[in-house]
Amino acid sequence: MKTSNQTLSPQADYYHAVSLSGGKDSTAMLLLMIERDMPIDLVLSADTGMEFPEMYEHLAKLDEYLFKKRKLHITTLRHPHGFEWVMFEEPKVKPSAIQRRLRDGVPLYGNGWPGIHVRWCTGQLKTHLLTKKVNELKGSYQALHYVGIAYDERERCKEEQYPLVEWKITEAQALNICYAHGFDFGGLYEIYHRASCWCCPFQRIDELRKLRHHHPELWERLRALDLRARKQFGPGPLGQFKKSWSMERLEERFFKEENPELPLAG
Questions:
Q1: Domain limits of the chain?
Q2: Considering all CA atoms of the chain, what is the largest pairwise distance in Å, rounded to the nearest integer?
Q3: Which CATH number among 3.40.50.620, 3.30.1440.10, 3.40.50.2300, 3.40.50.460 corresponds to the domain 14-194?
């Protein structure tokens, strides 16, 4: 997908920026905005580098559709160093963080696995990038920012534009809208509850079981990330993929489920 410089929409002196995660809700919002002839000046997407291959294929297909309909390309934002650098290599600079790391015997670099209270993956690789760009637009134009939140989750709405909430379109309806327009996400939503990053530690156990079965190559990459995290950060929260569950323990569990007649290795 190409990054292009957009010009101010001639309509009503507003600049219309759309945030696109690539999931069913933001995709349905973009498709309906195009279909209903709503003004669009910029479509923004933040790439963590850890999306499913099918999601990258979906975004490429959606980019082609957007260009065909509006002569626009998706503008993709990326962290300058990427997921693994933030997870394993980013140096700690705040004195309080350095003191805490020294106290706990943890290396002074890297953030380890994201946690409930420190979701650096969403923050550094998505939210911060999008917020910075949107704030730049709002500083230059009378900018409207469109966000794909479905009617089911309207409590998440803040001070932006939420077309799906206004139109009372639910998550289930949003997915059907995508399918009706020929966007099937490579079957991701037929397998997984959500099509978020494949390495997300907040996935349900059943989602991880599906990952192992349907995307074994990503499962092995996840095992390698977990091994590296445990070696670097130890058994504490930073090195722990899920509470009480390392990837090796999950591998043993799933293997045993598939082969109940065999003893576990070791």
A1: 14-194
A2: 70
A3: 3.40.50.620
